[in-house]
């Protein structure tokens, strides 16, 4: 097949930066990466961002169901997210089913100007009532039948649970066997609970440091288990949820730590009141909070996450890996999160100030207006 499109600039390929051309095929995949010393240096071409924790955007919450997931996917594509997991909230079973039905319908009919929805991150209702954060107190215990029924509506790729809840530890291997990445989150469990869950097959940690007790040298808790043993964990790099020093500690300790937005309906919107599941949240000065003042998700976008990671000292290459390759690898998706022949042409183009210039989802340009 002949290439249908070409982008030129400094390209972040599998082996590092290359000045050259990135060629796309008509089927939306990358044909080749060619070196060219004359290619412009002022255009940085990176893999599209892969966000595994997205609740909303552009005034819309995933839990609204219907076409809400489409609006959210479109909103995040304009900030460089080329694929994502639609993320649910703790809610009554019927509300979760309604949201999943909408997500499944959007996944079945993707459109060119949207980030691809890869599946669902089920964040709740299998959480600890002691570490709810912004989740409502409608928790329940997980069962294999319940999870399979949810996944029949829209494929669950990641599931957050508190492993200390009776019955959850034994369920982890069964969920893992279904191809679901089980994560520890919204948990009051101990370090020992975390280690046992990792041995049972837990794959990662949900928004590390948040929704769990802080690290204490006598009682290291879930944070200690993650820093000591985890290969993967997600972290929110909005510079509000986690102090930069704690971010750097996690980045050193967890080899394939990746970053997520935990974005809410307030993302891309002016200050004001928005929905987060059944709750009302207030966006003010870049923060999203409950009426109590507690943080409630974020208004972060992935392009801003890139700039924040560079601000705290990461190279562009390392920051890109945390936003693209690592989350793709976590889901076992070798065709996303990297710029190489055969991968999907999910691409972001930035200037040298890391401001977004262009976005391509599976070889199709996304309007940034």
From TrEMBL:
Keywords: Carbohydrate metabolism, Hydrolase, Metal-binding
Annotated ranges, domain Amidohydrolase-related: 45-364
Entries under SUPFAM superfamilies matching the protein: Composite domain of metallo-dependent hydrolases (SSF51338), Metallo-dependent hydrolases (SSF51556)
Names of the cofactor(s): a divalent metal cation
GO terms for MF: metal ion binding; N-acetylglucosamine-6-phosphate deacetylase activity
One record GO biological process: N-acetylglucosamine catabolic process
Binding site for Zn(2+): 123, 186, 207
Note describing how the cofactor binds: Binds 1 divalent metal cation per subunit.
A Pfam family that the UniProt record links to this protein: Amidohydro_1
Active site (UniProt): 262
PANTHER family for the chain: N-ACETYLGLUCOSAMINE-6-PHOSPHATE DEACETYLASE
Family: Belongs to the metallo-dependent hydrolases superfamily. NagA family.
Protein name, UniProt field: N-acetylglucosamine-6-phosphate deacetylase
């Amino acid at each position: 097949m002949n290439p249908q499109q070409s982008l030129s600039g400094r390209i972040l390929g599998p082996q590092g930066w290359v000045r050259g051309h990135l060629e796309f095929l008509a089927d939306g995949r990358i044909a080749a990466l060619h070196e060219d010393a004359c290619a412009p240096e002022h255009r940085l071409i990176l893999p599209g961002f892969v966000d595994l924790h997205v609740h909303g955007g552009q005034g819309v919450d995933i839990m609204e169901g219907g076409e809400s997931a489409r609006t959210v996917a479109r909103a995040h594509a304009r900030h460089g997210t080329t694929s994502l997991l639609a993320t649910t909230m703790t809610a009554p079973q019927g509300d979760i089913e309604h949201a999943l039905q909408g997500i499944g319908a959007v996944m079945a009919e993707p459109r060119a100007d949207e980030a691809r929805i890869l599946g669902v991150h089920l964040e709740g209702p299998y959480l600890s009532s002691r570490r709810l954060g912004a989740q409502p107190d409608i928790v329940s215990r997980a069962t294999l039948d319940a999870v399979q029924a949810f996944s029949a509506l829209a494929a669950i790729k990641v599931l957050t649970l508190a492993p200390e809840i009776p019955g959850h530890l034994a369920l982890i291997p069964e969920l893992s066997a279904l191809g679901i990445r089980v994560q520890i989150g919204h948990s009051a469990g101990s370090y020992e609970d975390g280690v046992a869950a990792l041995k049972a097959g837990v794959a990662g940690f949900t928004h590390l440091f948040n929704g769990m007790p802080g690290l204490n040298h006598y009682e290291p808790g879930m944070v200690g288990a993650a820093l000591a043993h985890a290969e993967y964990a997600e972290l929110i790099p909005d510079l509000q949820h986690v102090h930069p020093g704690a971010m750097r500690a996690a980045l050193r300790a967890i080899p394939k730590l990746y970053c997520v937005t935990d974005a809410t309906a307030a993302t891309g919107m002016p200050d004001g009141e928005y929905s987060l599941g059944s709750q009302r949240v207030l966006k003010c000065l870049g923060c999203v909070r409950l009426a109590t003042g507690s943080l409630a998700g974020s208004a972060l976008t992935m392009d801003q996450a890139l700039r924040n990671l560079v601000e705290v000292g990461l190279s562009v290459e390392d920051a890109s890996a945390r936003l693209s390759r690592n989350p793709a690898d976590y889901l076992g998706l070798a065709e996303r999160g990297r710029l190489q022949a055969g991968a999907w042409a999910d691409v972001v183009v930035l200037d040298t100030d890391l401001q977004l210039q262009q976005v391509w989802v599976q070889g199709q340009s996304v309007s940034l207006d």
